[in-house]
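C-alpha cells incoming
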C-alpha cells in the first residue's frame, strides 16, 4: 500500500455510527430474509436444511460488529490543493482521486 504521509483517518467515533448502520441493516433486511428463507427451506426440504441458515445469521451479525472497525482502519483521505484522495476497502483496496 503506497499511502501518502499526508493521508488522514476519520474520527474514531465513526465506528459507532457504521456499527449502528450495520446492526439496523441486519435487523431490517438480513434477519427477515434469512429467517424467511429458513422457514421455506424447512417446509420444503426438512428442518435440518432450514437450520443451515443459522450460521449465516451469526456470521452476518459478527461482520456487523467487527466490520466497521476494519473499514475505519483502512479508510484514509487527503484534501490537497488540486484534488482529493480517498483510500478504502477491507478485502479489495480502492484509491479514488477526485
Amino acid at each position: 500500500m503506497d499511502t501518502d504521509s499526508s493521508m488522514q483517518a476519520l474520527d474514531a467515533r465513526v465506528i459507532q455510527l457504521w456499527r449502528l448502520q450495520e446492526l439496523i441493516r441486519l435487523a431490517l433486511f438480513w434477519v427477515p430474509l434469512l429467517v424467511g428463507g429458513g422457514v421455506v427451506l424447512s417446509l420444503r426440504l426438512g428442518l435440518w436444511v432450514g437450520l443451515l441458515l443459522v450460521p449465516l445469521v451469526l456470521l452476518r451479525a459478527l461482520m456487523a460488529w467487527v466490520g466497521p472497525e476494519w473499514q475505519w482502519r483502512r479508510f484514509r483521505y487527503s484534501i490537497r490543493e488540486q484534488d482529493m484522495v480517498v483510500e478504502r476497502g477491507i478485502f479489495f483496496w480502492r484509491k479514488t482521486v477526485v
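note: Strands lie at 8-9, 76-79, 84-88, 94-97.
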